[in-house]
């Protein structure tokens, strides 16, 4: 079983964070949510209080198969401000760990120089922070071990892609069918 760490900070987009956590867990991935704040409980960009599983300083990340960063303007600022997280991301990059981010989240990786030479996507307006990357503007982009999403609207597809990378396409397809993904269910309009 693979282990994923999803980082949480005050000001994060709660749905981007929790959608990824939900889908990874449905796919059998062992997920730990990690607060980079002084407390386990963070306050999201929409005022929702969410309690992380652990605080950053209490986690051994040596088994990480995935490190994931949700978006949210203030949340991303708080993620980047955390010295330990910056150090961890640089180390994970050297170790070729899968790195995922959505919305403004890729800007953290970009500022650290991790995205140089990769095709990525991000929320419009953050492209200039993706140093050395080719920003495609697509919904979800996978380039080798870097997985990025443009925003909340693509979080289900992003989560399913992460499940496929960690647990295999067959597992991802089963999760996709169980959640009634639009690709698996027809939509009709009756007037």
Automatic annotation (TrEMBL):
CDD domains per UniProt: GATase1_DJ-1
Name by which UniProt lists this protein: DJ-1/PfpI family protein
Residue ranges constituting the DJ-1/PfpI domain according to the UniProt record: 3-164
Organism: Pseudoramibacter porci
Gene3D superfamilies: 3.40.50.880
GO terms for cellular component: cytoplasm
């Amino acid at each position: 079983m693979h282990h994923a760490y999803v980082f949480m900070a005050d000001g994060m987009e709660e749905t981007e964070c929790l959608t990824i956590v939900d889908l990874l867990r449905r796919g059998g991935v062992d997920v730990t949510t990690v607060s980079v704040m002084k407390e386990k409980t963070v306050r999201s960009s929409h005022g929702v209080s969410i309690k992380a599983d652990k605080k950053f300083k209490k986690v051994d990340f040596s088994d990480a198969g995935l490190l994931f960063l949700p978006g949210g303007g203030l949340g991303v600022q708080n993620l980047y401000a955390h010295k330990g997280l910056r150090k961890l991301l640089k180390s994970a990059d050297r170790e070729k760990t899968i790195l995922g981010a959505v919305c403004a989240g890729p800007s953290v990786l970009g500022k650290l120089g991790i995205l140089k030479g990769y095709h990525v996507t991000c929320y419009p307006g953050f492209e200039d922070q993706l140093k050395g990357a080719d920003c495609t503007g697509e919904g979800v982009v996978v380039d080798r071990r870097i997985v990025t999403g443009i925003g909340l609207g693509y979080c289900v597809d992003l989560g399913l892609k992460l499940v496929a990378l960690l647990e295999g396409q067959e597992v991802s397809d089963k999760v996709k069918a169980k959640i009634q993904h639009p690709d698996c269910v027809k939509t009709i309009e009756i007037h």
